[in-house]
Write a structure and sequence with these properties.
Order of helices and strands: HHHEEH
Number of helices: 4
Strand order of the largest sheet: 1-2
Distance between the termini: 23 Å
Mean pLDDT: 89
Low-confidence stretches: none
Number of domains: 1
Length: about 100
């Protein structure tokens, strides 16, 4: 697998885990204390593979419930709605 394929697989698994957490939570069970270590591990691994700026964009994308758009210095709007668009952006010349 390429680095991009691993990145996209991470987002697929992350979404699946969040959906499972929501189902379990609806059943009256709080599992955040059990999954927190997973998220810490994932963040640590991201910091090994990506620059600080790239990790900031990834974490923003995962956790902020906002329109997934980035504005460049020249006021160009870049869509990062999908993990693939996010990958393309964070590996572009615009992110160090």
């Amino acid at each position: 697998m390429s680095k991009k394929q691993h990145f996209l697989k991470y987002f697929e698994l992350h979404k699946q885990i969040q959906e499972n957490e929501e189902l379990i939570h609806k059943g009256g069970i709080e599992i955040a204390e059990f999954t927190d270590e997973y998220y810490q591990l994932a963040t640590t691994m991201m910091k090994c593979a990506f620059t600080e700026e790239q990790v900031e964009y990834i974490e923003w994308w995962l956790w902020e419930d906002v329109k997934k758009v980035v504005w460049l210095k020249d006021k160009t709007e870049v869509s990062v709605e999908t993990p693939e668009e996010l990958w393309d952006f964070i590996t572009s010349k615009h992110v160090k």
